[in-house]
Amino acid sequence: MASSNGLFPSTLFKFDNLERPVQLHLQNVYATLGIGMLSAAVGAYVHLFTEILQAGLLTTIAAICLLIWLASTRHAKENLNMRMAIFTGFTFCSDVKLFKHLDHGFLFCVPSIIATALLGTAVVFISFSLAALYNNQRTYLYMGGFLMSALSWLLILSIGNLFFASRLLFDINLYAGLFLFCAFVLYDTQLIVEKRRHGDDDYIWLVQDRVIGGGRMFQVWPQCC
């Protein structure tokens, strides 16, 4: 009886609609994503609870340099360990900055804010990724143009609000941005599948994009709560 239940774990994560190479590629993608999230958590801990390294100009420059280094390093079996190390360093440096706006006083007043943001980000990533993987029509790929246009408008809105300092524009930008990042999870998941079907198996480079999106989503949650 349990095996016939569509929510049973043995069938929930069984993607018979995907080819075996694509399934293996997705395993690599999400394993690498897990490593990136662990590195990001270490970076956050270092910023919040130690004096070793603080978010600032140096960590920003380091993250940019590591990203350029990762992009310029050829995806090959012999470079796998080096590229993974570069990726781990990038997630460490980039996600140190995510907690720049959270100090110890804020965490003392709202101690559950990190857990809430982490849970919200995880729920969005898991549910929207599963929705995209179970969609055989790949219809979410058609959202690419709309999402890029919406992202451009949000950028213009953010720049304009620097001059107007409107709370309404800030809230619109905040919640529209959260909705946009959720939609990007659908789009990026199907894009990863289609890229693998067309021969692109560079899962480390694909994951860095998801790490950046997930980090921005994590950063938005405390402001929405």
UniProtKB/TrEMBL annotation:
One of its GO terms (cellular component) is mitochondrial membrane. Coiled coil: none annotated. Belongs to the BI1 family. It comes from the Eukaryota. Its main location: membrane. GO terms for biological process: cellular response to unfolded protein; negative regulation of apoptotic signaling pathway; negative regulation of RNA splicing. The keyword Disulfide bond does not apply. InterPro entries: Bax_inhibitor_1-related. It is found in: Membrane. This is Bax inhibitor 1. PANTHER family: BAX INHIBITOR 1, BAX INHIBITOR-RELATED. GO terms for molecular function: enzyme binding. It is a multi-pass membrane protein. The chain crosses the membrane at residues 29-46, 52-70, 105-133, 140-162, 168-187. Keywords: Membrane, Transmembrane, Transmembrane helix. Pfam families: Bax1-I.
